[in-house]
Design brief:
The protein is 34% helix and 26% strand. By secondary structure, the protein is an alpha/beta fold. β10, α8 and β11 form a beta-alpha-beta unit.
Length: 266
């Protein structure tokens, strides 16, 4: 079984990492370059950088900040926010990103998924999927939202599971499944959503939205069937370290890439 990944998420607004609840009431969490370097040293498996206001503001991603962040990393970097064309993707990959994540642009132009996969390989193309549970739906359903940098975003009418399947058919190599209902609440991931998407697609699924403790990470993998867990608040505000998260998962039988302990800390 492949090792499960622990991925800190850097939501960047105006050059600073922020974290809110359901995409609102953002708190400053630090400098993205410093945080990226910190998580690299801590043993994270990957870092995700989202320019959360780029799509909502109709602008491009902050290439200079991405480049400075990438310089600090020896692990993969995924970058998203405001990417609308293959050329946008190319600029981010040249700036040091290993993957590019698209959400709003993919909904508006699904062919962009295949164009990116053809240009760079499907392993570089991540579908970022922000979802809201449809009230009263039984069995539960979730709708994809776009322009979600601040607030509830814009409705699309797309069913999240159906959109995930289509995106993989078009060429997406990974899907980040974010529950907007759970985002920032620290009450746990939407396990029903994760399980539904994970069982519907053949590519890795990354859980996002709701991590509040280490048990939530375990549940996302064991019950939500996710291949990786993305978290922000619990790491940014030092509730837990990457090493603690990996140790917790390993003790419960989850395969992880273990973090070497520096000799001075033994």
């Amino acid at each position: 079984m492949l090792a499960k990944r622990i991925i800190p998420c850097l939501d960047v607004d105006a050059g600073r990492v922020v974290k809110g609840v359901r995409f609102l009431d953002h708190r400053d969490a630090g400098d993205p370059v410093e945080l990226a370097a910190f998580y690299d040293r801590e043993g994270a498996d990957e870092v995700v950088f989202y320019d959360i206001s780029a799509s909502a503001q109709g602008r491009g991603i902050m290439r200079d900040v991405v480049a400075r962040t990438a310089e600090q990393l020896f692990i993969p970097l995924a970058v998203g926010g405001g990417l609308r064309t293959v050329q946008d993707m190319r600029l981010m990959l040249k700036a040091g990103a290993d993957k590019v994540s698209i959400n709003t642009a993919a909904v508006q132009n699904p062919d962009l998924i295949g164009q990116g996969a053809a240009a760079f390989g499907r392993q570089c193309i991540v579908l970022g999927m922000d979802t809201l549970r449809v009230p009263g739906s039984s069995p539960p359903r979730w709708e994809v939202r776009t322009h979600t940098g601040r607030g509830g975003g814009r409705p699309t009418g797309l069913d999240a599971v159906e959109w995930a399947v289509r995106a993989v058919e078009l060429g997406a190599g990974e899907i980040v499944v974010n529950s907007m209902d759970a985002d920032g609440t620290q009450q746990g991931y939407d396990l029903d959503l994760l399980r539904a998407v994970s069982r519907a697609v053949s590519v890795p699924v990354v859980a996002s939205g709701g991590a509040g403790d280490l048990e939530h990470l375990y549940q996302a993998i064991a019950l939500g069937e996710a291949d990786a867990v993305l978290a922000a608040s619990i790491f940014h505000f030092r509730l837990y370290s990457i090493a603690q998260a990996k140790e917790y998962l390993a003790q419960r039988g989850v395969p992880v890439r273990r973090v070497p302990v520096p000799s001075g800390d033994r």
